[in-house]
Write a structure and sequence with these properties.
556 residues, Beta-Lactamase, five-stranded mixed β-sheet, 4 domains, 14% strand, Helix Hairpins, alpha+beta, eight-stranded antiparallel β-sheet
């Protein structure tokens, strides 16, 4: 069995998961930029105000505005590129305008001999780069350039004391900024990992639910075991077969939970197919046509069900193996096989006998070997044999219709006495033996042909299995809920052990006296099936040597 099977479980696969540059990038970028936005722009405009107060001419102010414009353009450019489905613009293209702005600020600072605004402007350039770049290597490079430019201003203007504090502050800002950037990237990585894990867990749960539904829908029983041979999974089909629920057997040794027999002894330990499979073999038990290997599943009530079982090992870990086994109820196949054998026996014996008689007597008549009374007796024998053949063929055809589920009845109201007398008249040679006890004006509700078929079989059996001249009594009674017709004889009777199976197809009592007489084993099967199709039944009262009474129960 292939658990794929049979029904179509989709294979587990990875979906396209978001990347750090994907759907979450814009939010993470904004979170990283926000702490530095206000001080950056305060620094930029502060530098401009200080330059104005220091008496800067319009050329210096143009340089300042150009530097600010370069920074804002870079920020805008980067942000727009980031929001385009994770397409991050190369950081070096952003670094170029920012470094240019730093150079402008440096020239501004040198021109005005280290005006604080110039120092702060260079410092804000570094903070802006550190806060905006998503590539820490480029952030470090631009930050180092900015720091060196601060030192250049200090050397040229001879303001070492002034340079010390901004340089230290710039380094501190860079370290804090890079720590924030690293934290943001870690958060992105963690979120990515969590998203991926949630996706995988969801897919696994969906896959497991599909597999569970498939296993639970199987008509075959399925059991799996651990590497220790204990039951781990037990599907509903096995519960239906054995009467043992999963809650009862999970954790139990498989050779105890799944009790198997070869028809004479219970298979335990190394003889059990699941144990054999766990030790490395693949077993397939009870193929049809090999009765020496037939297996039976022992249910909770100790009844035995013919089964086939296929078991195979599957790896768990460290070289250990569990077992998966599929158990199939082959009761129907077994019944079909038995019916085939019975039919072959019937055709070869029961049908051959009347055919042989018919051919033999017909040859005598054709050859003119007999005349007068002897010829008449030959004709009677041919008639009886033909009638017997016709009856057997009719039973076979009716059985086929019943097995196909195509038995159709047309119910109508009919006179019970007239119907029973019509059936009794079909046995002219036994008319003196048949006794009727049927009230006048008793009405039956059912299919007349079906009821006649049932009564014909019951009366024929009563006459066949009773001593010659022993009476056969037919009694009919009407009630508020049902009408009953009983056929009683004083024949050999039926043992209780045979009574349990007497209505089964091709089944005949095991009594030697019964076996010596011809019969198909279909009459009572047909009678019970037709009665059930009417919503009624056929019951039996009998004891060996005391005759038998078969009663047809029909609802009113």
């Amino acid at each position: 069995m292939a658990l794929a099977a049979s029904g179509g479980v989709m294979p587990l696969r990875e979906k396209n998961l978001p990347s750090p540059e994907g759907l979450e990038t814009e939010r993470l970028f904004g979170a990283a930029l926000k702490p530095w936005a206000i001080p950056t722009f305060i620094g930029v405009f502060g530098a401009g105000i200080l330059a104005w107060l220091a008496g800067a001419d319009f050329r210096v102010l143009v340089l300042l505005v150009a530097g600010v414009a370069a920074v804002l353009t870079g920020i805008y450019w980067l942000r727009k590129r980031i929001t385009r489905k994770g397409d991050v613009f190369p950081p070096w293209l952003l670094a170029i305008p920012i470094v240019a702005a730093q150079l402008v600020a440096t020239g501004f600072a040198i021109t005005y001999h280290g005006i604080d605004g110039g120092m702060w402007f260079a410092l804000t350039m570094m903070s802006a780069v550190a806060g905006q770049s998503l590539d820490r290597n480029w952030a470090l490079s631009v930050g180092v350039v900015g720091g060196l430019l601060v030192l250049v201003v200090a050397v040229v203007t001879d303001q070492f004391d002034l340079a010390r504090s901004p340089a230290i502050f710039a380094g501190s800002i860079y370290v804090v900024t890079m720590a924030g950037l690293a934290s943001t990237q870690r958060a992105a990585a963690v979120e990515l990992s969590d998203t991926a894990n949630r996706e995988r867990i969801s897919l696994l749960e969906t896959h497991n639910r599909q597999v569970e539904a498939l296993i639970n829908s199987l008509q075959e029983g399925l059991v799996t075991t651990s590497n220790e041979g204990r039951v781990e999974r037990w599907n509903p089909a096995l519960f239906a077969m054995t009467g043992r629920s999963a809650a009862e057997v999970v954790g139990a040794p498989v050779d105890e939970a799944l009790e198997l027999s070869d028809g004479s002894t219970t298979l335990k330990g190394s003889r059990h197919p699941c144990v054999i499979a766990r030790e490395g073999g693949v077993t397939t038990g009870s193929p049809l046509g090999e009765p020496e290997r037939d297996l039976f599943l022992v249910a909770e009530d100790k009844s035995e069900i013919p089964v086939t079982i296929s078991a195979a090992p599957f790896p768990i870990d460290h070289g250990e193996h569990g077992v998966v086994a599929v158990v199939t109820d082959v009761s129907r196949e077994r019944n079909v096989s038995e019916m085939r054998d019975s039919l072959i026996s019937l055709v070869s014996h029961e049908l051959r006998t009347p055919l042989t008689m018919t051919v033999g007597f017909a040859d005598l008549l054709a050859d003119g070997a007999v005349e007068g009374e002897d010829a008449r007796q030959c004709a009677v024998q041919i008639r009886d044999a033909t009638s017997r053949l016709s009856s057997m063929i009719e039973d076979l055809l009716t059985t086929a219709v019943i097995e196909a589920g195509e038995l159709k009845l047309v119910a109508e109201s009919c006179d019970a006495r007239a119907l029973i007398e019509s059936v009794a008249s079909r046995f002219p040679d036994s008319s003196d033996r048949i006794k009727l006890n049927v009230p006048e004006e008793l009405t039956l509700n059912g299919d007349p042909d079906g009821i006649e078929h049932v009564l014909t079989n019951l009366i024929s059996n009563a006459l066949k299995y009773s001593p010659n001249h022993a009476p056969v009594t037919i009694t009919a009674t009407g009630g508020a809920f049902e009408t009953t017709i009983s056929v009683s004889d004083e024949g050999i009777g039926i043992a209780p052990s045979d009574a349990d199976h007497i209505f089964e197809r091709f089944n005949r009592a095991s009594n030697e006296d019964v076996q010596r007489l011809p019969g198909t084993g279909l009459g009572l099967f047909i009678a019970s099936q037709v009665a059930e199709a009417h919503g009624g039944s056929v019951s039996l009262e009998s004891a060996p040597g005391e005759g038998a009474t078969f009663t047809l129960h029909l609802p009113v």
